[in-house]
Automatic annotation (TrEMBL):
GO terms for molecular function: (R,S)-4-hydroxy-2-oxoglutarate aldolase activity; 2-dehydro-3-deoxy-phosphogluconate aldolase activity. Keywords: Carbohydrate metabolism, Lyase, Schiff base. This is 2-dehydro-3-deoxy-phosphogluconate aldolase. Pfam families: Aldolase (PF01081). Pathway: Carbohydrate acid metabolism; 2-dehydro-3-deoxy-D-gluconate degradation; D-glyceraldehyde 3-phosphate and pyruvate from 2-dehydro-3-deoxy-D-gluconate: step 2/2. The keyword Lyase applies.
């Protein structure tokens, strides 16, 4: 499925962010999310299993858009695109990294945590971005404050978000979705507990 940058925010109210240790788990995990009603997964490149996991999900699981997360260096975006990623996510953005993302051409959510960083992305024509690390950077009140001076920008806050505060973020007019690792906790991955992941996904999908 092809998506545009702004559409990444509409794929699901919650984007599960996962760092997999074993690419063999990728397909079962993605299918559990789909059964729970979640239409996307961000597989981070923090582990060597990240790229092969993206490759498997893109090839074998329908009804889910797989994004590649934790893109921090030029070159990674092209490798993620080659593996079949539908979009890219970065924790922040240097000029070099953003140029590289533009060159690859996939939709991306680049991370910002300050007003000036958001404005720099807006200057590049980008209106959908990640707010990271959300809780540590000021959380809901901070994001709400951005909607006055920067009314055209929409965000996917990530970092420190869970079932207790996700609704507060999703209620903001400038938030399209939230991201987080709470739907795919290490304990469920270690146990291969796909029913447990499906249950958490179902709760997350119902948040909005
Ligand atoms: C991310 O990269 O988006 C975060 O690590 C996810 O943050 P969380 O683990 O606090 O949900």
């Amino acid at each position: 499925m092809d998506v545009k940058a702004a559409e990444v925010l509409e794929l699901s109210p919650v984007v599960p962010v996962v760092a997999l240790d074993d690419a063999e788990q990728a397909v079962d995990l993605a299918r559990a999310l789909v059964r729970g009603g979640i239409g996307t997964i961000e597989v981070t490149l923090r582990t060597p299993a990240g790229l092969p996991a993206i490759e498997r999900i893109a090839a074998e699981v329908e009804d889910i858009v797989v994004g590649a997360g934790t893109i921090t260096e030029p070159g990674q975006a092209a490798r993620a695109a080659g593996a079949g990623a539908g979009y890219l996510v970065t924790p922040g953005g240097t000029d070099r990294l953003l140029d590289d993302l533009d060159e690859v051409g996939l939709p991306y959510l680049a991370g910002i945590s300050t007003v000036s960083e958001a404005m720099r992305l807006a200057e590049r024509g980008v209106s959908a971005m990640k707010f990271f690390p959300a809780e540590a950077s000021g959380g809901v009140p901070y994001l709400q404050s951005l909607s006055g001076p920067l009314p055209g920008l929409r965000f996917c806050p990530t970092g420190g978000i869970g079932p207790d505060n996700a609704r507060d973020y999703l209620a903001l007019s400038n938030v399209g979705c939230v991201g987080g690792s709470w739907i795919t906790p290490k304990r469920l991955l270690a146990a291969g507990d796909w029913g447990g992941v499906e249950a958490l996904a179902r709760e997350a999908a119902a948040l909005r």
